[in-house]
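#help-structures
NK: newbie question, is this the right format to request a structure? protein is Family with sequence similarity 92 member A
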Amino acid sequence: DDFCDLGFPLSDQDNQTRQIQDAVSNVEKHFGELCQIFAGYVRKTARLRDKADLLVNEIYAYAATETPNLKVGLKNFADEFSRLQDYRQAEVDRLEAKVVEPLKSYGTIVKLKRDDLKATLTAKNREAKQLSQLEKTRQRNPSDRHIISPG
């Protein structure tokens, strides 16, 4: 009666189930944290890019009011600074696509795994209850033992 459908003694199966639950919870906790932190990093990087864009616009505005030599220097500086923001935008896009989105998908995967685990445990508990009831029935009716047999 310590046999289960996977062929493990109940204590081994319980340990295996606990390990699976712990692994799912561990992934859920750490991947959730990683996803939130990376998303925050991406948002802050995007805000920094936005601030830099404001700075570039202000440099252009200032250049428009200056002498020709200073105007050229300021515009060249603003152009280069603007190109740097293009790289920052590429960083934001790549982090979002290559890091944040895949981490978010793990949230769905973990939820599905948790649901699968819950369904498996429910089935296991239902089966254990049925086996227990069968054993009680056998004990009450020892003469019918040959008729009352599992599945």
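mod (FA): yep, format's fine, and the tokens are attached above. The chain is about 85% helix and 0% strand.
NK: thank you!
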